[in-house]
Amino acid sequence: MDGVEGRGLFFSGRAGVGKSRLLREGVAALPPERYAIWYVAASTATAALPFGGLAQVLPAEQPEGLSPAGVLRWAVEVLREQAAGRRIVLAIDDAHLLDPPSAALVHLLARQENTTVLGTLRNGEQIPLPIRALWTDDLVEHAELAPLGPTETADLLAAILDGPVDAGSAERLFRLSAGNPLLLRELVLAASGGGELDRPYGVWRWTGRLELAPSLTDLIDTRIGRLESGVRAVVELVAFGEPLGLHLLNQAADPADVELAEERGLITVAQDDRRFDVRLAHPLYGEMMRRRCPVSRTRRLQARLAELLEAVGARRRGDLLRVAVWRLDSGTAQDGTLLLGAAAQAFARYDVPLATRLARAALDADGGFDAAELLATILMFADRPGEAVRVLDAVTGEVTSDRRFSRWLTVRGMVTYWGLSRESTVEEIARAGAELADPGDQARVRAFEAIMRLHGLDPAAALRLSRSVLDRPAAAVAARELARCTIAHLDAARGQFRRSAAAIARVQAEAPAWRADMPYLQLAMELARGTRLALAGDLAGIDAIAADEFADLAGAGDFRLGTGYLAILQAYAARLRGRSGDALKISLGACAVLATSRVYAGLAHAERAQAAVLHGDAAAAAEAMAEADRMHTPGMAVLYPWLEQARGAVLAAGGDLPGAAKHLADLADRLRADGLAGHEVLVLHDLVRLGRADAPVGPTCTDGGRRTVAQRLTELSDRVDGVLPPLLARYARATVAGDGADLLEVADAFAALGLTVWAAEATAIALHGLRRERAASAAAAHQRLGALLGAADQIRTPALEALRPVLTDRERQIAGLAAAGVTSRLIAERLFLSTRTVENHLQRVYSKLGITGRAELPAALRSITGHDGGEAE
């Protein structure tokens, strides 16, 4: 609008994308003393009237006897007179509704000097030729306003609700709104009004129940319009069957009606491999049609869809599941085998609510033991362990073989151990499993016992049992790979990352063979893989599994243990990158997702405590740690290193540095005794970060002394895999030696791995020594630290806090102004001081910062605040 050459801009998009709002906000930003602004909204009511679209702009009376061209010239002159020398800005909302004379006038104005023409257009509408010619003749720019993406939608939701929204809820609302801001707002208002939003741990969650408020219904009605019976039938079929094959739809409805529905923008047809799939143009159309369709017609349509797909053969992977759902919803489901197979398929996709419905229906259709076993398993992952136990106990009479008993025993053991936190379960299944005669059945029980032993912190027994399963040729694939996951997790905790990675890769390669039998094995695999990546400092690897298909399936299917654990990993990665705000937000989301489960809940709160520590909120960190202790269960004892490491951070954040150091030293001794060297490395590194690199740890040596933290890290660097342990050992040695140059090289290596917090701390420690020595390289170190802090959020750690010099309020004020380029004389005038006093203050600042003069001041302040002249700002 205020460009030198630009004469205009038209932007188009779907209804509700925000075109009108953008136009209003842009025009409102123009100062009226410089611009003559006319804002008009075209409408269907004025589309048939000559100059009706610009009736708000032009005088009511037009001169008589003018030709059409004369009228246009008259209109231009009128606007120029009213502008009184100012630049003309004509803004037209819904310009596609302009009448022909108004459209011609807009085109003519766009050709005039000192005139800017702005407008909005709705996609799919017929655009008057004079308006279209504006950008085809290069008179104005044309831009398309795309819908919001998933990230933008989550940000907008957080702004609407004044707080973060959990990832699953944000994803579902994004899908329903299709990124349309207007529909998103209406969905949120409807959910708020219906009490369908809650806020555990400060994170908003949507129950998923959709209330179609009147305002939302009116919006959808306006878009759908009045439907003829044939077109309505098409839209209803697609609403209940999408994605629906075009060939199938043409059998169920008149092809002419299908074409008409597509022309009207109600459905879309897209090619998928060799088949054309039909979907509704917007997800909310389906919600509306399904809500309004009478029950009798709904059931008839669903039964008809099932018949058609069965007739052509369920050839695609998801066809069995779709037929089963249609049969179930239409009341024509009589085949328990069909329902059971569909339930297993839904669970393999981690769609917990749908799998629960189908498995329960299969049990009701006399599915017997197999249906009860599957339903109980699903209920465990739906956080309903009590109900799962009742389902299993109801079919004990059908446990008539060793095969059934092994499966009943393992599912019940899983539910009681993890779901009900009953520690005696391990011994119970060990005794019962020993009585099984079949080696394959016994291997299944042993694989479950092994992973329970690992989680209960009996690594020796876990390893022995897992190896015995792998040694049995009769063991089924699922049992073998579950045992391999146990070994992979244990190897990761011990720092054997290469062996752990190889085992995980083997499990992943066998996924097609175990997924149908034991889809939840994915969770054991992700826990082993996540432990390895976190201990190895492989943040890129964490990013990769967070972007993997499992993350999408778990989020869409409400598989909370999966989404919760992946969120914990994402928060961990964000924290080490210095994004304390993101880490806190993501960890809060993990706590909210896991609020009804105690498997990973303690770990989620421990990570929340770590994020709060980094963000500088000691009170929130202590509260999160207390919640971690409350939620943590003995059945997840294998996670104790993470919780106790967080406790050390919370103690330090609360000001008890000696207590934190003692706690971490004791934890390192315990980890050494348990053989968990991978964890021990990170705990020793935390001691280095607290300035205890030369502190004694471990048992007394033969010479009567004890190894220091730095010496123990050096020893472990030869035993623990990866690039990180040698780097941490080098960091510890350089800290003890006070070697600033080596510390800066270590900092660069940390930064290359994305470990921004550790890089900043290493640079800070180096800078501390360089300041003390008044070294010439201090200025460069200030620059490097400032760049690292500038790339991070607000972060607070003991190493960084020790760097912050104690400046008085006056010194901070003068230093900030000087760093911003204000001369001493002007500073003195502003603060009513003498120039000599200002210079004296600056000399004291230079001394405290370890710099030689004003030229180094911006970098020095940036190394403290993350911003040049931060105090002045």
TrEMBL record:
SMART domains with a match to the protein in the record: HTH_LUXR
InterPro entries: AAA_22 (IPR049945), P-loop_NTPase (IPR027417), Sig_transdc_resp-reg_C-effctor (IPR016032), Tscrpt_reg_LuxR_C (IPR000792), WH-like_DNA-bd_sf (IPR036388)
Domain named HTH luxR-type: residues: 800-865
Gene3D superfamilies, per database record: Winged helix-like DNA-binding domain superfamily/Winged helix DNA-binding domain
GO BP terms: regulation of DNA-templated transcription
Coiled coil stretches, renumbered: none
Originating organism: Micromonospora halophytica
Entry protein name: ATP-, maltotriose-and DNA-dependent transcriptional regulator MalT
Family annotation (CDD domains): LuxR_C_like
